[in-house]
Sequence to fold (240 residues):
Amino acid sequence: MIFAPFPSFARIVLLSLLLSGGGVAAQQPSVAQILMGFFGIGANPSSMRPADDVDHGELWTVHLETGVKRRLAPERTLHSPIFLPGGDIIALEGQALMRIPASGDDAFSITTINDVLKLVASKEGNHGQVLLVLSDQTVAILSLKDGTLNPVSLDWSSTSDVESFAQLMSWDRYYDDIHLRVIRRVITGFSGRSEQTDVFLVRGHGEPQNLSGCGERSCGQPSLSFERDKVAFIKMSSPP
Fold:
């Protein structure tokens, strides 16, 4: 077989690339693709709803099959809990990142994250990566293995990136056919009418099911376990 020779210009370009170690630049993943690698981050960020009113409070879990609720780390006031593979939970106490063992042992501090606003999600498997948002709206990925914090570059002129950021600031979470939502409800009591929030689960196109049932308190910030059998949430320490 006889191969046609490269044109002289093409040969020069190819030789230059080989000598410089260059080549065709690999396409970088989009922000949406990076975020979708984390558990509970869906493909439709434009459908996200605003964040709930819960700031910090008591950490609770509810078992999806039995409905049994359990309070964890009762001595702590926590925020934005997320499950890790294996069943442990991490959450914020101020700027301290706390780990709450699934065994029921005492919570302990892992590290301090300056100016952290919220935790968002972790990755399945032994990646040890946590997606979070800082108070200056920086999105970053924390390595639980070495403590490094790597920012995710967002293009604020990009509609897709803005929608992705709105998803992170919401508490709606999508896990295939399981959708966790924070829904506002009206409570009428002796002191009049008030609005509170609860954590609801929607399977497929079914009706929302109230998981938290927090009565006169607001609940929010839900996270599903990787085993898909429990949901963690925060209950405000006292009625607002």
